[in-house]
Design brief:
By secondary structure, chain A is mostly helical. Chain A contains 20 helices and 2 strands. With 198 residues, chain B is mostly helical. Classes of the chains: A mainly alpha (443), B mainly alpha (198).
Chain lengths: 443, 198
């Protein structure tokens, strides 16, 4: 094919074309990905070997006695073996966290969410046809795939689902968090998650190191490059993206013009949802918020909140400048003087998280910018004044009610507290009543 | 009972998890568009029922989850915090929070989200909250008896009605669905009205 026309579906190639393509290389993996992959591989091999030797209980034991003795012998004692297993596990968690935190935009978002686990229609068709072909029940052609085919994406999905389980249960087991029952269950889930990954790993290793057609993919995990012919046949949609990028680059070089990047058409549903510019449908947010609220109850024994956190920040500030006043005051003194410092409270840290979470969500959707929300007929000055006044009334009322819409209505409502429902009716009642007078500000 | 939850946590884990849970809270609030006073107040002009949908929906999801997990013995409901019922302070406080909502445009949680996405009015609202809390604290001794008196204890609707929590949870879910359906109808009719006017 000429450089001017890039086919939009796989066409048969002439022997010369195929030969030419097999000589050209395109970049499949960043150095960062290659390093992470091999770090992961080495870590898993070592953790599997040491982990197998550590399992001694008659329920779960599977490594033969000579193997256990051999491995324990290398480390001197079971205690040392366990320490090594934990230390390596912590290192693994740390490295992944660094990738996740510092490489969020390039690594987590682009690489993982879009390339590695986003399933599109071609992927589902591929899974169906591939399975039928293995069973000998179809000779249909496989639909074109992106940089990773659907089978690889399923593996990635499974691994990404299991890795947090392995990490979390490993931490619980290593540090005995949460008491006997939790640790006991963590052991079960740790083994189960590892078993799931190992079953996938066996296919992964076979495909990479043994299966002849995937040899270019195996070598790409060292060099980062694959030849074009392989990409054309096995990952056509990615080959096409690369070719179009090249074409655009060539045009830019020729004309000196900058053009827009190709929009990524095949982003999976998770990536699309996170990057959505519009607000989510309220039922999605309701579901997410409900689960978060539930999780908070499970972990903390209490629900979410806000006004209580503000109170503590205020008291902390007052205490810093006038401790005598605070200590003697009948209301403020409730928050100081106990065995825990005033800021050691769930809501204090939760509010920090709220700010962070709100920012990240807004930033992902491109909604972070300095602005003032108001109706068309209001001035900024009026709006800001009323914001302060409204905040004052809300703050006072929240303390009077011992909670606000999150602390009392949401969390109290979830546990069916009678006071919470009284509060909620009052909030909505006052809101509707006040709306009549506030028309000029909002509409 | 040998329930798994709630957990007992070490300090470091407590801080990390608190921030993480708050992160999810703020994330979902912003995703719903609750960092915008215009969207929030739309509820009180009946053209945008997101506030009701998200609040009521979240309450129902969490309530059903708690009831289910409690029945399975995974959660010890006795160790979950239930707010005490101070009916009159909660009624008056609720009126004030509602008023503050329509006047100021936010509530404490959404105000944080607004401020974190660059809204000056959100930031000013938060300053107002702190001022309001300060005024409350300073004046509280003068109505201390009203504020602290007459707690009916951690009364739940289950105790009031005599119905088991599971039944109430499902009733709540049914009411929520009814409210959502009503909200959709009103939203559509408001939209149609607006289209006619333009």
């Amino acid at each position: 094919m000429t450089s001017a026309t890039i086919p939009d579906r796989q066409l048969p190639l002439s022997p010369d074309q195929a030969e030419a393509m097999s000589q050209r290389l395109i970049k499949k993996h960043d150095v960062a990905i290659i390093l992470l992959h091999w770090f992961n591989a080495v870590t898993w091999i070592l953790e599997l070997l040491t982990g197998a030797a550590l399992i001694r209980s008659e329920h779960f034991q599977f490594a033969p006695q000579w193997f256990q003795s051999l491995i324990v012998g290398i480390f001197g004692s079971r205690a040392n073996l366990l320490r090594f297993h934990i230390a390596l596990g912590l290192t693994w968690i740390f490295v992944f966290s660094m990738y996740g935190i510092f490489g969020f935009r390039t690594y987590l978002r682009r690489q993982v969410l879009e390339k590695e686990i986003g399933l599109d229609r071609d992927d589902f068709a591929w899974l169906r046809i591939r399975t039928l072909r293995i069973l000998g029940k179809s000779s249909e052609h496989l639909p074109p795939q992106g940089i990773y085919n659907a089978g690889q994406k399923m593996f990635a999905l499974m691994v990404y689902a299991m890795i947090p389980v392995v990490m979390l249960t490993g931490l619980i087991m290593a540090f005995h968090w949460g008491g006997t029952v939790l640790v006991g269950w963590a052991v079960v889930f740790h083994f189960a998650a590892v078993a799931v990954v190992v079953s996938g790993l066996m296919i992964h290793v076979y495909m990479g190191a043994v299966f002849p057609e995937e040899k270019p993919a195996f070598f790409s995990m060292f060099t980062g490059m694959v030849n074009e012919l392989y990409a054309y046949h096995h990952h056509f949609k990615w080959w096409r993206e690369v070719k179009m990028q090249e074409q655009i680059w060539r045009q830019e070089v020729a004309t000196g013009e900058q053009s827009l990047p190709i929009s990524e058409e095949q982003a999976g549903p998770v990536a699309r949802a996170l990057r959505m510019k519009d607000y989510w449908p309220p039922y999605w947010a309701a579901f997410g918020l409900g689960l978060t609220l539930l999780a908070t109850f499970l972990v903390m024994g209490q629900g979410l909140g806000a006004s209580g956190g503000f109170t503590r920040y205020l008291v902390w500030g007052l205490n810093a400048v006038a401790p005598g006043y605070v200590g003697a005051h009948p209301y403020w003194s409730n928050y100081v003087g106990g065995d825990a410092p005033v800021l050691m409270d769930f809501l204090v840290f939760e509010l920090l998280g709220v700010a962070l979470g709100g920012f990240v969500s807004g930033w992902l959707a491109g909604r972070v910018r300095p602005s003032v929300d108001k109706g068309p007929r209001a001035t900024v000055r009026t709006r800001l004044t009323l914001a302060f006044v409204g905040g004052g009334i809300a703050g006072f009322g929240a303390r009077l009610a011992r909670g606000c819409t999150s602390g009392l209505a949401l969390s109290g409502g979830a546990v069916l507290s009678a006071g919470a429902f009284v509060f909620m009716f009052a909030v909505f009642g006052a809101g509707f009543a006040g709306a009549v007078f506030m028309r000029r500000i909002w509409r | 009972m040998n329930a798994l939850f709630p957990l007992t946590l070490s300090t470091g884990l407590f801080v990390v998890l608190s921030i993480a849970l708050g992160f999810l809270f703020g994330f979902f609030l912003e995703r719903a568009g609750f960092g915008s006073a215009l969207k929030l107040t739309g509820q009180f002009y009946l053209n945008d029922w997101s506030v009701l949908k998200v609040m009521f929906g979240a309450i129902v999801v969490a309530c059903l989850g708690l009831v289910l997990l409690s029945m399975m013995g995974i959660v010890d409901f006795g160790m979950i915090y239930v707010p005490e019922a101070y009916y009159l302070p909660m009624l008056i406080g609720g009126l004030m929070v509602g008023l503050g909502f329509i006047v100021g445009g936010y509530c404490p949680g959404t105000g944080v989200v607004a401020a974190s996405t660059g809204k000056w009015d959100g930031l000013v609202f938060l300053a107002g909250i702190v001022a309001g809390i300060f005024v409350f604290g300073v004046t509280e001794p003068s109505f201390h008896d009203f504020f602290t008196g007459n707690s009916r204890g951690p009364v739940t609707l289950s105790q009031l009605t005599g119905l088991p929590s599971g039944v109430l949870a499902f009733l709540l879910a049914a009411m929520a669905i009814g409210a959502f359906w009503l909200g959709e109808k009103v939203e559509r009719s408001m939209q149609a009205k607006k289209a006619v006017q333009e």
